[in-house]
Amino acid sequence: MIILVLNSGSSSIKYKLFDISKDPEKLLNKGLVERIGLKIPSHKQALEDILNKVGSKIDAVGHRVVHGGDRFSKSVLIDDDVIRAIEDFTELAPLHNPPSLLTISESRKIISGIPHVAVFDTAFYYDMPECAYFYAIPYRFYEKYKIRKYGFHGTSHRYVSEQASGILKKPLNKLKLITCHLGNGCSITAVKNGKAIDTSMGFTPLEGLVMGTRSGDLDPAIIPYIMEKENIDVNAVMETLNKKSGLLGVSELSNDMRELMKEKGKNKKVKLALDIFIYRIKKYIGAYTGVMSGCDAVIFTGGIGENNPDIVKEICKGVISKDTKTLMIPTDEELMIACDTYRITVNSQKK
Ligand code: ADP
């Protein structure tokens, strides 16, 4: 079965084409169409370009959707009702859900008559215990505005958990894992018996670990304080916390780990940025080991986690026990999306 996976941003669409009937699955083609709105007039045109490039018969399409809100606990076959629900969650993911919706509606027209499946970043976290996803703010904010921890990067955390189970030769439902996705965005998840029980990203991807340009955890009282001192509005503070903080903000040099590693021996602010980055991850590993009463393996993925054994060693030093394994596993969110799409397509054909 040939499956096209589409991962849409506001000005780009990433794609991968897999043959899933092969064992192991075979990647047939991949690419990125950029500058939609500038060089390429629309998502519709970008899709037509992708179809020309892949030039193959497609049996099903898998779409990455960032926010499945409080409705989707797993990947689903897309119909009009699913589209309406994703539209409803646009308010929670104003930057991410609209381009996915555009791509879904255009591709259902252009590549019609085959199953289209939505795979949500948030779905892995749907079943977390209430005590992990509730914020201690008035309950009505949850009822009225759906404010809770949603978690993101779920497809990546789920993929590397499954890979780890294969490597460790132990079923997922017998494992306590901590998965660290360290890329430009960073998040960490406690996976107990195959289920995510806590994660660092929250209502938005801003919470949790120190990231390339995001601050991660901080005292919310800092926000009005900065607004007053710098005489800026809330949007400007949020822009600072999302785009000018994290490794970039503290180092005043770069959000790119490779750049920072080169400078760390010479530059105090770079060293501090790396120290905060590592310390925050250690704290979460300690906390998640505690709430799971142990941890069989800590898994590292994402650009930093897959490529930087020095950072991984530094993070693990003194925080994990001798019995805990450390694994560096390349993530493949698109393959996970293709596998979900395959499973759902096969099941829908049985009905
Ligand atoms: P994104 O979250 O945008 O998908 P990536 O997962 O590609 O990003 O991660 C980007 C980060 O990974 C950058 O900080 C980059 O410096 C780091 N990185 C990529 N390759 C290496 C490497 N070989 N060694 C150290 N860090 C790396």
Characterise this structure.
By secondary structure, the chain is α/β, with parallel strands linked by helices. It is 42% helix and 18% strand. The protein has 14 helices and 11 strands. It has helices spanning 43-54, 80-88, 97-110, 130-133, 139-145, 154-168, 222-230, 234-243, 246-251, 257-263, 268-291, 302-307, 309-316, 333-350; strands at residues 2-8, 13-19, 26-33, 60-65, 76-77, 116-120, 176-182, 186-192, 195-199, 297-301, 325-328. The strands form 2 sheets. Strands 3-2-1-4-6-5 form a 6-stranded mixed beta sheet. A 5-stranded mixed beta sheet has the order 9-8-7-10-11, with helices on both faces. A hairpin with a 4-residue loop joins strand 1 and strand 2. Helix 1 crosses helix 3 (97-110), helix 7 packs across helix 8 and helix 11 (268-291) packs across helix 13. The longest helix has 24 residues, at 268-291. The model has no long low-confidence stretch (mean pLDDT 95). It binds adenosine-5'-diphosphate. Adenosine-5'-diphosphate binds at residues 183-185, 212, 256-258, 302-304, 307-308. Adenosine-5'-diphosphate is lined by residues 183-185, 212, 256-258, 302-304, 307-308.
